[in-house]
Write a structure and sequence with these properties.
α2 (24-43) runs antiparallel to α3 (50-72), α5 (108-129) runs antiparallel to α6 and α6 packs antiparallel against α7 (182-207). The chain has helices at 2-18, 24-43, 50-72, 79-102, 108-129, 135-176, 182-207. The protein is mainly α. It is built from 7 helices and no strands. It is globular.
């Protein structure tokens, strides 16, 4: 039951992000909360073996610790190490995505999307390294907020374009089946509407 719950919650979260209803920060925090709640639900089972329970507890407390660290920031002595590690992680990820594009494994559109998402996550992690209110935090957070807004607005525009195309296709279908009998029109129209909704939902999920 918890597996279905997690899949549904994560899918709803991805759709909300893809449509621009949530920004990247809200999307990420929700994913963390889903993971924590998922592991908590797993621990409610009374038929777990000792090994299974130990593994789930480890995942649960690791998820909690990760969220707490992100909320509280790093200790002063660990900031420089954290900055260096994050920059290395970010640059390595960019290099991997660039090579995938060069190799033809992904399209230019997919490459650009991967870079944008990587930048958002990088800026998010940088805001978590510094103490809230410090000059470094304010600078990093300003950049992050700018990218959050730009990313959300882009997704909203894409969702609006998809909805417009969806409505245009609906209008076309109504016109196309106008010459049939009412019963035939309804049967053909309902079938195409169902197929169109499947395609539309798939496009929204893919955009996330």
């Amino acid at each position: 039951a918890e597996n279905e719950w997690r899949e549904r919650q994560e899918a709803l979260n991805r759709i909300a992000y893809a449509k621009g209803e949530k920004n990247y920060e809200q999307y990420t925090l929700r994913m963390q909360d889903i993971a924590i709640e998922y592991h908590r639900k797993q621990l409610e089972h009374t038929d777990l073996t000792a090994t299974e329970r130990l593994g789930i507890e480890a995942n649960y407390y690791e998820a909690l610790k990760k969220k707490q660290e992100q909320e509280n920031g790093f200790a002063e002595e660990a900031i420089e190490t954290a900055k260096a590690q994050e920059k290395e992680r970010y640059n390595s990820l960019l290099a991997i995505e660039k090579q995938r594009y060069i190799d033809g494994a992904i399209s230019l559109e997919e490459y650009q999307a991967a870079k944008e998402l990587a930048e958002l996550e990088h800026l998010r992690k940088m805001t978590q390294i510094f103490e809230v209110g410090s000059a470094e935090y304010l600078q990093a957070n300003a950049r992050y907020q700018d990218r959050l807004i730009a990313d959300q607005q882009k997704r909203q525009r894409e969702a609006e374009a998809a909805e417009k195309a969806h409505q245009q296709e609906l209008a076309r279908l109504k016109k196309e089946y106008f010459g049939n009998s009412p019963a035939e029109n309804r049967a053909l129209y309902d079938a195409d509407i169902a197929n169109l909704k499947i395609v539309y939902d798939a496009e929204i999920l893919a955009a996330g």
